[in-house]
Specification:
This protein is of the alpha+beta class. It is built from four helices and six strands. It has a three-stranded antiparallel sheet.
Length: 142
């Protein structure tokens, strides 16, 4: 399997500095700062990128689980809400709320929910993050 890379560059102090984050193949490059991470400033932040990775991984895992069960999804759209909170140990990602909507012809609601939960438990990014963060799932069949 290939090794994936990403890089970041930061210049200046924590609160006044700024930086850029980019993926190894050039698919994404964005600016980040103290304000974009801890306030509502322009740019991205590491938590958004974790959310994007988690939403993408879950959507692929769920699509595979549906197909393996005999259902071809028309679409799976997932949003990940990443909670960065201050704890006694410092700042940390404490919770990720996955919200997914699937357009899947022929699947019943119970099977859809069961397969969604299985994808949440088994996607590689969920397995990476679940020891340190609570992961919730809201799955809606459209």
């Amino acid at each position: 399997m290939p090794i994936r890379t990403a890089s970041a560059r930061w210049s200046g102090s924590l609160q006044e500095g700024s930086g850029t984050i980019k993926t190894g193949k050039g698919g994404y490059e964005g600016n980040y700062s103290f304000k974009s991470r801890f306030e509502e400033g322009e740019g991205t932040n590491p938590e958004e990128l974790i959310g994007a990775a988690h939403a993408g991984c879950f959507s692929m895992a769920f699509s595979k689980a549906l197909a393996d069960a005999g259902f071809t999804p028309t679409s799976v759209e997932t949003t990940a809400k990443v909670h960065l909170d201050k704890t006694d140990a410092g700042f940390g990602v404490t919770r990720i709320d996955l919200e997914t909507v699937g357009n899947v012809p022929g699947v019943d609601a119970d099977t859809f929910q069961k397969l969604a939960e299985g994808a949440k438990e088994n996607c590689p990014i969920s397995r990476l993050l679940s020891p340190g963060a609570e992961i919730s799932l809201s799955a809606t069949l459209s």
